[in-house]
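Morning, I've got a small favour to ask if you have a moment. The fold is given in discrete form, as structure tokens running alongside the sequence. I'd be grateful if you could look everything over and explain what you see. No rush at all, and the record is pasted right below.
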Amino acid sequence: MRKRWNDLILLGLLAALLVNGRSVQGDTLTGEAKIPLISEATTDPVAPRDPQDPDLPYPGDELDPANQGTGSTEVLSLDYASNLHFAKQTAANKVSAQLLNAKAMVQVTDQRGSGTGWVLQLKPEFLVGQQTGAILQSGLLDFKGLTTLKTTSDNVSPAPQLVTDQIYLGDYVNLVRASSQQGRGIWVLGLGNDATTPAKLTLALPAKVASDHYVGTLNWSLLDAPN
């Protein structure tokens, strides 16, 4: 994080004071060191990193090619959040669709000097049929055991904590929490990096469900202090 250091004032220890030309021994004065720090409100956008090795740039996602990141210039920034694509399913009472984009991830960068922590929240909305308008409400995003939380090799900050890895549609949940002095620098949350048991979307369907392409909004929220 870039900072401006202005008006450096050093008031040190006065060991001897000259009064009327004479040296008076034994007097001391404790002074102050004043350093006004001005934290800049914005930074350059942070480029997305590889969720498996954040020292490397993000290799891209062929299922999400138009996603170039948020372009955020805040000192606490949500840099990137993947759009999630799940495999086609045949309608039944219950379906479990696998996540197709293996490089799906979310990236947070904390360049503040305060170390006050942060929390990443997610609310997945109900799924809506693009042709029929049919709504699917009973569903669960399941990243259980698959998420990875990584940072760059030069980051010495304590890691934030993964709060949950299962999110019901329509619920707002805390996904990652950085307590005080945690989570500084770049942190990448991989959402589906296990090729053998990928993340999935489980849906409980009504007796009759229209054949359609269903889409739901992922609402991400980055708060500037843990709650």
Notes: Residues 162 and 176 are 5 Å apart (CA to CA). The chain is about 0% helix and 35% strand. The chain has a mean pLDDT of 81.
